Amino acid sequence: MKEKKEAPEYTGFEALYLAALDSDVSFITGVPGYPVTSLMELFLRIPVGKGLLNASEEKNLDSRKAAAFEIMRNTSKIQDYNARWLTNEKVALENALGASVSGRRTLVLVKHVGMNLLSDPLITSVTHTIGAGLVIIAGDDPGAKGSQNEQDSRWYGRIAEIAVFDPGSPDMAYRTLRRAYELSEETRTPVLLRVTASLEKTKGKINRLRKSSSPHPEFDRAIWKKRMVEKHRLFHSRTYPLLEKEAENTDLNEIRKRTAGNTGNGSGSEHGYLGIISSGFMSSIVEELLKKQNEFHAEVSHPEISHLALGLVNPLPLEKIKAFLDSNQKILVVEESEPFIEEQIRVTGKVYGKKTGHLPYGQVRPEDLEFALEHIEKEIVKPADTTLKAKKKNRVGICDDCAYLPLYRFLSTLDVRIAGDMGCSVRSAPEPLAAVDVSFALGSAISVACGFEKKSIAVIGDFALAHSGILGLLSAATTGCNVLVLVLQNEVAAMTGGQAVPDLRKVVKAITPDVSVFNIDASEEEAVNGTSKAIDETDKRADKTEKVMDKAENEVESGKEIEKTILNPKLSELILAKLALPGLSVIFIEGKCRKYCSGVFC
Fold first, then answer.
1. Going along 353-446, which residue ranges are E strands?
2. Do 205 and 278 lie in a common domain?
3. What range defines the domain where residue 452 resides?
4. What is the pTM of this model?
5. In this structure, are 239 and 107 located in the same domain?
6. In angstroms, what CA-CA distances link 125 with 105, 220, 314, 382?
7. Coiled-coil annotation: which residues (predicted)?
8. Same-domain status, 245 and 299
9. Do residues 91 and 204 share a domain?
């Protein structure tokens, strides 16, 4: 008798991948960024429509690719789709909107800060209406492990007035994405699905549903018969009520009752002492912790804790939440990163969470939840601060073998303001390098430097230039800004996985005539190409070189050659010469990324 094969387990991101396939998604766009890069790589690494590898070929796969092919093995039929990396989130959504209008289900993958970029077409698309289902997966980063900030993508659901799903397990992720496409087509609006890196690491079994079949709806031009004010009123009289009904009736919003001697689901109608409302991955954390709470229950003399786990968080199921509030004396809201749910229901006066100091803002760990449960009887005015409890980690800096390390050391000696970017250059801002002064957003360096009082420097990577920096350069050229732009051209998005970057040198030369190219890896004789005549700054150059050498001697580790930390004198001369000239100057500094090798620099 054959042994029954155990059902495979999938990570949350693998579950989303399968849900996209089963939903008949045919067009995927994404912008690299933590944590969604690994999800996009599933679409890009699996050869869709091709046969599986043989055993000998499969042995040579790395672990991530092997996992991807394991998914294929468990997928009976995979349809063709078009998946592509882009450099700008607004463009990614606009591409997807075009596909939706033409009847193709689409998926957009961005990290949380990317939501800031695509919010313009997103908000307009809601009353404009779309065609086939369109889902945006936003990767939030509680704890800012790989991001410039902590922000909560769920707020964009309220701003744009769209449905927001927040799954907490692989099976929930699968079911959520499947329903998201149906709901998107029922309401003719995009749908937002929030994920975190914790979901990527979580494994579980999923119950796959019957695959969707085409055709899917195309854009209905009848909407143009209505004026904008009529579109808005129609949305609130017809579309948004559908979303509210979905929130109240979906099985993705579930009340679970756990007692000291029993676990399971309950109606939540009986009156209890403590209820927990959670969303996303926090729902899994709550469930795991409640299983261990028998001793806690006995200590505090309330044997029951009801748990309302929300998978659809915008609109909130207000009727269901009201009944839950009425059924419990106290409510603890457990969510990452901001008090999105808590803010909307705390008017009742018996809601506890981030605002009351029981839980920290940003990432919430199991020990934080334990602290909240232990202190639920106490009023804590000051917001929780876990920085002292958290284990300190070394700040991630510039790679020790980075080709641009000598450049950053040189820049730190200049008496000018320097605007950096949210690429690798942001890592040069803290001590000991202290090279760039400010860094606000990806692609912002040029525009920020244009606001400085005198000619200064913008340090921007080639990916950031393609993302949105090119717009700042256009503005600088047309408004006569005094700025020196240093484009660090390594042809990869080094912060997000080494994706290829378009070469914009010809575009930049069409925008402004003063463009130089310097290969930082080349010999001194080959390094400079097309430079202007250098201005005599001999004394300044000598002074700066001396400062750089002093800095190198202080920072260099034992056994390293100090000469390797000094910037090529020809490049330092070029930078100083361009700084002395009025107007806009651009220097492309070519260099090989030691972490990711690409193009002609390999």
1. 418-419
2. no
3. 404-524+564-596
4. 0.82
5. yes
6. 15, 13, 17, 41
7. 535-562
8. no
9. yes
**Residue 390 forms part of a structural domain:** no
Return d(Cα 473, Cα 505) in angstroms, integer: 12
User: pLDDT for 268-326, tens place per residue?
Assistant: 445 688 999 999 999 999 998 888 765 545 454 445 789 999 999 999 999 999 999 99
Q: Work out how many domains the chain is built from and give that number.
A: 3
DSSP assignment letter at 311: S
Angle at 9 between CA 278 and CA 257, to 5 degrees: 30
Token pair in block for residue 105: 């289900």
Detail the DSSP E strand segments found in 81-190.
82-85, 105-111, 134-140, 164-165
Identify whether residues 205 and 92 lie together within a single domain: yes
* CA 443 from centre of chain: 16
Scan for tokens 């031009």, then name that residue.
221
- Residue 327 maps to which CATH number? 3.40.50.920
Structure tokens at 544: 């700066």
Q: Which residue has the tokens 């310097």?
A: 518
Tell me which residue has tokens 């704890």.
Answer: 143
**Confidence category of residue 540, pLDDT binned at 50, 70, 90:** very low
Q: What is the mean pLDDT of residues 227-234?
A: 92
Residue 323 placed within a domain: yes
Q: What is the pLDDT of residues 110-165, one digit of tens each?
A: 999 999 999 999 999 999 999 999 999 999 998 878 877 889 999 999 999 999 99
Helix (H, G, I), strand (E, B) or coil at 511: helix
Distances (CA, A) of 576 to 386, 453, 512, 537, 544: 45, 18, 19, 7, 10
> How far apart are alpha carbons 595 and 492 in whole angstroms?
10
Model confidence at 562, pLDDT cuts 50, 70, 90, reads very low
